[in-house]
Design goal:
- By secondary structure, the chain is an all-alpha fold.
- It has a domain of 301 residues.
- It is 69% helix and 2% strand.
């Protein structure tokens, strides 16, 4: 029986889509595996998504699906160069260099594979799944908030009985949810926020009860997470909503409705003791941080721009080829000095320049910046055509692309996923809808 090339192409895309969904599920529940299910394998599970990515890249290459573009070629070339410079001029440890290179040789290409095989319907399906997950996730972080660090729900990676929470305020700890570390909670709800806003302003069909419960979960997550970063991220997503509605003024009435709804939910939840305490805790957290950092504006400016500029101004003593790729990661420091510490810099620009040197590090930063500009332009184009979704997702993906801490597998995973979803929407028609002659050509709008 002869199977047509079109059917083969559809099968290939179907396999890769399943790979994306597996990557997504492992990203959400990787921490649960490391803490509660298979704690003895916690170190190996840190890179549990890497074999999935490796298979997807191999399969995409075999089926001639991987797109060709300047961003992908540049990052792969710089990543390969980084391995060489790390071995010849840097730390000299092959395993550390390979661990650092996986960011650029495995996960960064996955952005373009997701953009190639997913379409807007797939993105919306994943968005609805995120909304479903947000409801039990909020119940979980509430249990973690009120439970001692010795409780099973707060158990740390590898079954650590000291707990996975991170100090918040008034003796309460920031809950990690199903993730290995508390940053996972911030990243997760940061992705939920633009999707909640999108479904309120979109005509896309969705169960209204699900949307209401997910909205309640989002509002409740702010005080329960004790995360200033999450609060800023949700505010940023809302600002993207406001700017996006400039192109669709017919929905301004709905904006007023959503604002009133969010305020009403906040007032409603504040009537319950279990939410009054988290509100007091996060308020104290803001006050303490403002006293230390000199106010909200100074804190935000320093977070967004201060570390970026200091990466260049403080680079005078860094060798030309840097200290070596992978040295700025926790795993790299564990392999090199036996302890998980920041050997170079906690922030992304400082890590890139410290690992790769001023010249190559800056080149990597420029690739990310130009890719961010390209995605922004394409999202604005879609916005002008009436599609708000990529613009809202970019409210999360943009900062993660420009200066997200990709040394962390969790941060890297969320960045890759969100950017891939943005690219999937701003791309041309889905690959499986192409003709045989066009199926081998890149379908996204990121030019060759």
């Amino acid at each position: 029986m002869i199977i047509s090339n079109e059917i083969k192409s559809e099968r290939s895309i179907s396999y890769l889509k399943k790979g994306v969904w597996l990557y997504f599920l492992l990203l959400i529940f990787e921490g649960a595996l490391r803490k509660w299910v298979l704690p003895s394998l916690s170190d190996a599970l840190l890179i549990v998504r890497d074999p999935v990515v490796l298979w997807m890249i191999y399969y995409s290459w075999k089926k001639n699906i991987i797109p060709q573009n300047v961003f992908l070629t540049s990052m792969i070339g710089l990543g390969a160069l980084g391995i060489i410079t790390a071995l010849l001029f840097g730390h000299g440890n092959l395993f550390v260099a390979l661990y650092g290179a996986r960011i650029y040789l495995l996960h960064f290409p996955l952005i373009f594979i997701i953009g190639r095989v997913f379409d807007e319907n797939d993105v919306i399906k994943m968005g609805k799944v995120l909304l479903y997950i947000s409801i039990p996730m909020t119940v979980l972080i509430a249990l973690q908030f009120y439970s001692p660090q010795s409780a099973w729900v707060n158990r740390g990676v590898g079954g650590d009985m000291e707990g996975a929470g991170f100090s918040g305020a008034l003796g309460y700890y920031r809950p990690p949810g199903t993730f290995s570390f508390t940053m996972g909670t911030t990243l997760f709800y940061s992705c939920v926020a633009p999707l909640v806003f999108y479904f309120w302003f979109s005509s896309t069909k969705i169960n209204k009860l699900l949307l209401i419960l997910a909205t309640i979960a989002l509002v409740a997550s702010i005080p329960l997470s004790i995360s200033r970063g999450l609060f800023y991220s949700i505010v940023l997503s809302f600002l993207f909503v406001v700017t996006g509605l400039f192109f669709d003024t017919k929905k301004l009435n709905r904006l007023i409705f959503v604002v009133i709804l969010l305020i009403a939910l906040g007032v409603f939840l504040s009537n319950f003791e279990m939410f009054r305490t988290p509100v007091e805790v996060i308020s104290t957290r803001f006050e303490q941080a403002n006293e230390i950092e000199g106010g909200v504006s100074n804190s935000l400016v320093d977070r967004v721009f201060g570390y970026m500029f200091r990466a260049f101004t403080d680079s005078g003593d860094i060798p030309f080829f840097g200290y070596g790729m992978g040295m700025g990661t926790n795993v790299g420091s564990q392999l090199l000095v036996g302890d998980r510490v920041f050997l170079i810099s906690e922030m992304e620009f400082g890590r890139l320049i410290g690992e790769m040197g001023l010249f190559i590090g800056t080149a990597m930063i420029l690739v990310r910046l130009t890719f961010a500009l390209r995605l922004s332009w394409l999202s604005i184009y879609k916005l002008r055509k009436g599609n708000l979704l990529p613009w809202l997702l970019l409210s999360v993906g943009l900062l993660n692309l420009v200066q997200g801490q990709w040394a962390s597998p969790m941060n890297l995973g969320f960045s890759v996923l969100v950017l891939g979803l943005v690219l999937a929407i701003v791309s041309n028609k889905p690959l499986e809808k192409k003709t045989k002659s066009s199926s081998m050509k890149p379908t996204n709008n990121i030019k060759n």
